[in-house]
Amino acid sequence: MLSVKELVESVGLTSVPFNYIFNNTESDLHYMLPQPETVPIVDFSLLTSHDPDQRSKTIIQLGHACLEWGFFMLINHGVPEMLRDEMITETERFFDLRAEDKREYVGKKLFDPVRYGTSFNPNVDKTLLWRDYLKIHVHPRFNAPTKPSGFSKVLREYCQKTRGIASELLKGISESLGLAPSYINEKMGVESSESHQLLVANMYPPCPQPELAMGLPPHSDHGLLTILMQNGIDGLQVMHKGKWVSIKPLPNAFLVNTGDHMEILTNGKYKSVLHRAVVNKAARLSIGTAHGPALDTVVSPATELVADGVGPAYLGIEYRNYLVLQQSKTLSGKSCLDHLRLSI
Protein backbone atom coordinates (compact mmCIF):
# COMPACT_ATOMS: atom_id res chain seq x y z
CA MET A 1 0.00 0.00 0.00
CA LEU A 2 1.35 3.41 -1.02
CA SER A 3 -0.02 6.11 1.26
CA VAL A 4 -0.81 9.58 -0.06
CA LYS A 5 1.95 11.01 2.13
CA GLU A 6 4.47 8.59 0.59
CA LEU A 7 3.16 9.36 -2.88
CA VAL A 8 3.63 13.10 -2.39
CA GLU A 9 7.08 12.82 -0.82
CA SER A 10 8.56 10.16 -3.10
CA VAL A 11 7.46 11.48 -6.47
CA GLY A 12 7.39 15.25 -6.00
CA LEU A 13 3.93 15.58 -7.52
CA THR A 14 2.93 18.60 -9.58
CA SER A 15 -0.52 17.21 -10.54
CA VAL A 16 -3.11 14.88 -9.05
CA PRO A 17 -2.97 11.27 -10.36
CA PHE A 18 -6.07 10.31 -12.35
CA ASN A 19 -7.33 7.78 -9.77
CA TYR A 20 -7.62 10.58 -7.15
CA ILE A 21 -9.61 13.00 -9.34
CA PHE A 22 -13.25 13.59 -8.39
CA ASN A 23 -15.30 14.41 -11.46
CA ASN A 24 -18.68 14.79 -9.79
CA THR A 25 -20.34 17.82 -8.26
CA GLU A 26 -19.43 16.68 -4.74
CA SER A 27 -15.97 18.11 -5.36
CA ASP A 28 -17.34 21.47 -6.51
CA LEU A 29 -16.32 24.06 -3.93
CA HIS A 30 -18.49 26.85 -5.31
CA TYR A 31 -21.76 25.95 -3.60
CA MET A 32 -20.83 27.77 -0.43
CA LEU A 33 -23.17 29.54 1.94
CA PRO A 34 -22.12 33.20 2.21
CA GLN A 35 -20.99 34.31 5.63
CA PRO A 36 -21.91 35.46 8.26
CA GLU A 37 -23.55 32.06 8.92
CA THR A 38 -21.42 30.63 11.71
CA VAL A 39 -21.60 27.40 13.63
CA PRO A 40 -23.09 27.82 17.14
CA ILE A 41 -20.81 28.18 20.17
CA VAL A 42 -21.44 26.27 23.41
CA ASP A 43 -19.57 27.17 26.60
CA PHE A 44 -18.80 23.91 28.41
CA SER A 45 -17.98 25.72 31.67
CA LEU A 46 -21.53 27.12 31.75
CA LEU A 47 -23.04 23.74 30.90
CA THR A 48 -21.31 22.25 33.95
CA SER A 49 -21.90 25.30 36.12
CA HIS A 50 -23.52 25.03 39.56
CA ASP A 51 -25.57 28.12 38.69
CA PRO A 52 -28.95 26.68 37.56
CA ASP A 53 -29.81 29.73 35.45
CA GLN A 54 -26.55 29.60 33.51
CA ARG A 55 -26.85 25.85 33.02
CA SER A 56 -30.48 26.14 31.89
CA LYS A 57 -29.63 28.80 29.30
CA THR A 58 -26.71 26.74 28.00
CA ILE A 59 -28.87 23.62 27.68
CA ILE A 60 -31.29 25.62 25.52
CA GLN A 61 -28.35 26.78 23.35
CA LEU A 62 -27.06 23.21 23.13
CA GLY A 63 -30.46 21.90 22.05
CA HIS A 64 -30.77 24.63 19.44
CA ALA A 65 -27.31 23.76 18.07
CA CYS A 66 -28.24 20.07 17.79
CA LEU A 67 -31.60 20.85 16.19
CA GLU A 68 -30.52 23.53 13.71
CA TRP A 69 -26.95 22.57 12.87
CA GLY A 70 -25.89 19.20 14.27
CA PHE A 71 -22.51 20.90 14.79
CA PHE A 72 -21.24 23.29 17.42
CA MET A 73 -18.01 24.78 18.66
CA LEU A 74 -17.17 23.89 22.26
CA ILE A 75 -15.17 26.42 24.27
CA ASN A 76 -13.88 26.43 27.86
CA HIS A 77 -13.90 22.63 27.83
CA GLY A 78 -11.12 22.20 30.38
CA VAL A 79 -8.68 20.20 28.24
CA PRO A 80 -5.28 21.87 28.70
CA GLU A 81 -3.87 23.51 25.59
CA MET A 82 -0.58 21.73 26.25
CA LEU A 83 -2.28 18.33 26.07
CA ARG A 84 -4.02 19.26 22.81
CA ASP A 85 -0.71 20.44 21.35
CA GLU A 86 1.01 17.25 22.48
CA MET A 87 -1.72 15.17 20.89
CA ILE A 88 -1.27 16.96 17.57
CA THR A 89 2.51 16.62 17.78
CA GLU A 90 2.53 12.92 18.67
CA THR A 91 0.00 12.12 15.94
CA GLU A 92 2.11 13.98 13.37
CA ARG A 93 5.11 11.99 14.59
CA PHE A 94 3.21 8.78 13.89
CA PHE A 95 2.50 9.77 10.30
CA ASP A 96 6.17 10.81 9.96
CA LEU A 97 7.38 7.33 10.93
CA ARG A 98 9.19 5.22 8.37
CA ALA A 99 6.83 3.31 6.08
CA GLU A 100 7.96 -0.04 7.49
CA ASP A 101 7.05 1.05 11.04
CA LYS A 102 3.53 2.08 10.02
CA ARG A 103 2.93 -0.98 7.86
CA GLU A 104 2.70 -3.09 11.01
CA TYR A 105 -0.87 -1.77 11.21
CA VAL A 106 -1.85 -2.07 7.54
CA GLY A 107 -4.45 -4.58 6.38
CA LYS A 108 -6.03 -4.99 9.78
CA LYS A 109 -9.67 -5.87 10.29
CA LEU A 110 -12.34 -3.39 11.38
CA PHE A 111 -12.18 -4.21 15.09
CA ASP A 112 -8.45 -4.81 15.34
CA PRO A 113 -6.98 -2.49 18.01
CA VAL A 114 -4.93 -0.23 15.70
CA ARG A 115 -5.39 0.24 11.98
CA TYR A 116 -3.45 2.40 9.53
CA GLY A 117 -4.43 2.94 5.92
CA THR A 118 -5.40 5.29 3.13
CA SER A 119 -8.57 6.37 1.29
CA PHE A 120 -11.70 4.87 2.98
CA ASN A 121 -12.18 1.40 1.51
CA PRO A 122 -9.71 1.03 -1.38
CA ASN A 123 -11.32 -2.29 -2.34
CA VAL A 124 -14.55 -0.58 -3.38
CA ASP A 125 -13.68 3.13 -3.70
CA LYS A 126 -14.14 4.25 -7.31
CA THR A 127 -11.93 7.27 -6.68
CA LEU A 128 -9.22 7.27 -4.04
CA LEU A 129 -9.29 9.86 -1.27
CA TRP A 130 -6.46 12.29 -0.55
CA ARG A 131 -6.18 11.01 2.99
CA ASP A 132 -4.16 8.68 5.21
CA TYR A 133 -5.68 7.56 8.50
CA LEU A 134 -4.93 6.04 11.87
CA LYS A 135 -7.84 4.37 13.70
CA ILE A 136 -7.49 3.22 17.30
CA HIS A 137 -10.07 1.54 19.51
CA VAL A 138 -9.29 3.30 22.78
CA HIS A 139 -12.21 2.12 24.93
CA PRO A 140 -13.34 -0.16 26.55
CA ARG A 141 -9.82 -1.53 26.13
CA PHE A 142 -7.10 1.04 25.64
CA ASN A 143 -4.81 0.46 22.67
CA ALA A 144 -1.99 2.49 21.11
CA PRO A 145 0.77 2.09 18.50
CA THR A 146 4.14 1.15 19.94
CA LYS A 147 5.75 4.08 18.11
CA PRO A 148 6.41 6.94 18.55
CA SER A 149 7.51 6.32 22.11
CA GLY A 150 5.54 9.17 23.74
CA PHE A 151 2.28 8.59 21.88
CA SER A 152 0.60 6.12 24.23
CA LYS A 153 0.77 8.27 27.36
CA VAL A 154 -0.60 11.38 25.62
CA LEU A 155 -3.26 9.38 23.80
CA ARG A 156 -4.57 7.80 27.01
CA GLU A 157 -4.90 11.12 28.82
CA TYR A 158 -6.49 12.85 25.84
CA CYS A 159 -9.08 10.12 25.32
CA GLN A 160 -10.01 10.08 29.00
CA LYS A 161 -10.63 13.82 28.83
CA THR A 162 -12.82 13.61 25.74
CA ARG A 163 -14.86 10.74 27.22
CA GLY A 164 -15.63 12.95 30.18
CA ILE A 165 -16.67 15.79 27.90
CA ALA A 166 -18.94 13.51 25.87
CA SER A 167 -20.67 12.29 29.01
CA GLU A 168 -21.41 15.84 30.20
CA LEU A 169 -22.62 16.91 26.75
CA LEU A 170 -25.00 13.95 26.61
CA LYS A 171 -26.46 14.98 29.97
CA GLY A 172 -27.19 18.42 28.56
CA ILE A 173 -28.60 16.96 25.33
CA SER A 174 -30.89 14.67 27.35
CA GLU A 175 -32.24 17.65 29.25
CA SER A 176 -32.71 19.63 26.05
CA LEU A 177 -35.01 16.81 24.90
CA GLY A 178 -37.07 17.02 28.08
CA LEU A 179 -35.54 13.87 29.54
CA ALA A 180 -33.66 13.21 32.75
CA PRO A 181 -29.96 14.25 32.61
CA SER A 182 -28.85 10.64 32.93
CA TYR A 183 -31.22 9.29 30.24
CA ILE A 184 -28.88 8.92 27.24
CA ASN A 185 -25.86 7.93 29.32
CA GLU A 186 -27.86 5.19 31.05
CA LYS A 187 -29.79 3.95 28.02
CA MET A 188 -26.65 3.84 25.87
CA GLY A 189 -24.30 2.82 28.70
CA VAL A 190 -21.93 5.65 27.80
CA GLU A 191 -20.42 5.79 31.27
CA SER A 192 -20.10 2.01 31.54
CA SER A 193 -16.87 0.07 31.31
CA GLU A 194 -17.97 -1.30 27.91
CA SER A 195 -18.85 1.92 26.07
CA HIS A 196 -17.08 2.35 22.76
CA GLN A 197 -14.65 5.13 21.85
CA LEU A 198 -12.81 5.20 18.54
CA LEU A 199 -10.07 7.68 17.74
CA VAL A 200 -9.62 8.55 14.06
CA ALA A 201 -6.69 10.70 12.99
CA ASN A 202 -6.76 11.91 9.39
CA MET A 203 -3.68 13.22 7.62
CA TYR A 204 -4.40 15.20 4.44
CA PRO A 205 -1.01 15.77 2.75
CA PRO A 206 -0.33 18.85 0.61
CA CYS A 207 -2.19 18.58 -2.69
CA PRO A 208 -0.87 20.21 -5.88
CA GLN A 209 -4.40 20.63 -7.31
CA PRO A 210 -6.77 20.76 -4.33
CA GLU A 211 -9.77 21.60 -6.51
CA LEU A 212 -9.57 18.13 -8.10
CA ALA A 213 -9.18 15.90 -5.07
CA MET A 214 -11.19 15.18 -1.93
CA GLY A 215 -10.04 14.34 1.58
CA LEU A 216 -13.36 12.86 2.67
CA PRO A 217 -16.57 13.07 0.61
CA PRO A 218 -19.90 14.12 2.13
CA HIS A 219 -20.79 11.73 4.93
CA SER A 220 -22.24 11.50 8.41
CA ASP A 221 -20.56 9.91 11.42
CA HIS A 222 -21.58 6.81 13.32
CA GLY A 223 -22.07 7.03 17.08
CA LEU A 224 -23.72 9.58 19.32
CA LEU A 225 -21.14 12.38 19.27
CA THR A 226 -17.83 13.12 17.58
CA ILE A 227 -15.35 15.49 19.24
CA LEU A 228 -12.85 16.93 16.76
CA MET A 229 -9.75 19.09 16.75
CA GLN A 230 -7.37 20.00 13.94
CA ASN A 231 -3.98 21.59 13.39
CA GLY A 232 -5.15 25.05 12.35
CA ILE A 233 -5.48 24.38 8.62
CA ASP A 234 -8.99 24.87 7.21
CA GLY A 235 -10.72 22.04 5.40
CA LEU A 236 -13.85 20.98 7.26
CA GLN A 237 -17.12 21.96 5.58
CA VAL A 238 -20.62 21.36 6.93
CA MET A 239 -23.87 21.14 4.99
CA HIS A 240 -26.30 23.77 6.32
CA LYS A 241 -29.46 24.95 4.59
CA GLY A 242 -28.43 23.11 1.44
CA LYS A 243 -25.06 24.87 1.16
CA TRP A 244 -21.54 24.12 2.34
CA VAL A 245 -20.22 26.20 5.22
CA SER A 246 -16.46 26.32 5.92
CA ILE A 247 -15.77 25.91 9.61
CA LYS A 248 -13.07 28.08 11.15
CA PRO A 249 -12.62 26.91 14.75
CA LEU A 250 -11.81 29.34 17.50
CA PRO A 251 -8.38 28.84 19.12
CA ASN A 252 -8.36 25.95 21.59
CA ALA A 253 -11.96 24.99 20.74
CA PHE A 254 -13.36 21.58 19.88
CA LEU A 255 -15.86 20.94 17.13
CA VAL A 256 -18.64 18.57 18.15
CA ASN A 257 -21.22 16.94 15.91
CA THR A 258 -24.14 14.59 16.39
CA GLY A 259 -23.87 11.15 14.79
CA ASP A 260 -26.19 8.67 13.12
CA HIS A 261 -27.00 6.95 16.40
CA MET A 262 -28.11 10.23 17.95
CA GLU A 263 -30.51 10.57 15.02
CA ILE A 264 -31.80 7.03 15.57
CA LEU A 265 -32.11 7.45 19.33
CA THR A 266 -34.00 10.77 19.07
CA ASN A 267 -36.22 9.38 16.28
CA GLY A 268 -34.94 12.00 13.86
CA LYS A 269 -35.23 15.10 16.04
CA TYR A 270 -31.47 15.64 16.29
CA LYS A 271 -30.08 14.60 12.93
CA SER A 272 -26.58 13.66 11.94
CA VAL A 273 -25.27 16.19 9.44
CA LEU A 274 -23.36 15.81 6.21
CA HIS A 275 -19.82 17.15 6.30
CA ARG A 276 -16.72 16.75 4.17
CA ALA A 277 -13.00 17.42 4.17
CA VAL A 278 -11.50 19.39 1.31
CA VAL A 279 -7.74 19.50 0.78
CA ASN A 280 -5.19 22.27 0.53
CA LYS A 281 -1.66 22.94 -0.62
CA ALA A 282 -0.71 22.70 3.06
CA ALA A 283 -0.88 19.54 5.18
CA ARG A 284 -3.94 19.27 7.41
CA LEU A 285 -4.39 16.99 10.40
CA SER A 286 -7.67 16.25 12.17
CA ILE A 287 -8.21 14.11 15.26
CA GLY A 288 -11.71 12.94 16.09
CA THR A 289 -13.06 10.73 18.84
CA ALA A 290 -16.37 8.97 18.14
CA HIS A 291 -18.41 8.15 21.24
CA GLY A 292 -21.01 5.38 21.25
CA PRO A 293 -22.50 2.58 23.31
CA ALA A 294 -21.05 -0.88 23.79
CA LEU A 295 -20.67 -2.72 20.49
CA ASP A 296 -23.43 -5.21 21.35
CA THR A 297 -25.98 -2.49 22.22
CA VAL A 298 -29.05 -2.34 19.98
CA VAL A 299 -29.76 1.32 19.26
CA SER A 300 -33.38 2.13 18.43
CA PRO A 301 -35.63 5.18 18.85
CA ALA A 302 -36.28 6.07 22.48
CA THR A 303 -39.89 5.30 23.41
CA GLU A 304 -40.18 8.68 25.12
CA LEU A 305 -39.33 10.44 21.85
CA VAL A 306 -41.69 8.56 19.55
CA ALA A 307 -44.83 10.64 19.09
CA ASP A 308 -48.18 8.97 19.69
CA GLY A 309 -49.68 7.64 16.49
CA VAL A 310 -46.46 8.17 14.51
CA GLY A 311 -44.24 5.27 15.44
CA PRO A 312 -40.46 4.82 15.20
CA ALA A 313 -38.73 6.23 12.12
CA TYR A 314 -35.79 3.79 12.22
CA LEU A 315 -35.14 0.12 12.72
CA GLY A 316 -32.99 -0.81 15.69
CA ILE A 317 -29.52 -2.13 14.95
CA GLU A 318 -26.64 -3.47 16.98
CA TYR A 319 -23.89 -0.85 17.08
CA ARG A 320 -21.27 -3.37 15.93
CA ASN A 321 -23.34 -4.32 12.88
CA TYR A 322 -23.78 -0.67 11.91
CA LEU A 323 -20.01 -0.17 11.90
CA VAL A 324 -19.60 -3.28 9.75
CA LEU A 325 -22.25 -1.99 7.33
CA GLN A 326 -20.56 1.40 7.05
CA GLN A 327 -17.12 -0.07 6.44
CA SER A 328 -18.38 -2.46 3.74
CA LYS A 329 -19.44 0.37 1.43
CA THR A 330 -18.01 3.47 -0.15
CA LEU A 331 -18.39 6.56 2.00
CA SER A 332 -21.49 8.17 0.52
CA GLY A 333 -23.74 10.64 2.31
CA LYS A 334 -26.11 9.01 4.81
CA SER A 335 -26.50 5.80 2.82
CA CYS A 336 -26.01 3.56 5.87
CA LEU A 337 -28.66 5.35 7.89
CA ASP A 338 -31.01 5.18 4.89
CA HIS A 339 -31.00 1.37 5.26
CA LEU A 340 -32.72 1.76 8.63
CA ARG A 341 -35.37 4.34 7.75
CA LEU A 342 -38.99 3.28 8.07
CA SER A 343 -41.95 4.75 6.20
CA ILE A 344 -44.14 6.50 8.75
From TrEMBL:
Keywords in alphabetical order: Cytoplasm, Iron, Metal-binding, Nucleus, Oxidoreductase
Main subcellular location of this protein, as a coarse class: cytoplasm
Annotated PROSITE patterns: FE2OG_OXY (PS51471)
Subcellular location: Cytoplasm; Nucleus
Pfam families per the UniProt record, alphabetical: 2OG-FeII_Oxy, DIOX_N
Molecular function terms from GO: metal ion binding; oxidoreductase activity
Top-rank taxon, per record: Eukaryota
Any single GO CC term annotated in Swiss-Prot or TrEMBL for this entry: cytoplasm
UniProt key word Membrane: no
Occurrences of domain Fe2OG dioxygenase (ranges): 194-293
Family listed: Belongs to the iron/ascorbate-dependent oxidoreductase family.
General function of this protein: Involved in the regulation of shoot development and salicylic acid (SA) homeostasis.
Designated name of the protein: Germination Insensitive to ABA Mutant 2, Gain-of-function in ABA-modulated Seed germination 2
Annotated organism of origin: Hibiscus trionum
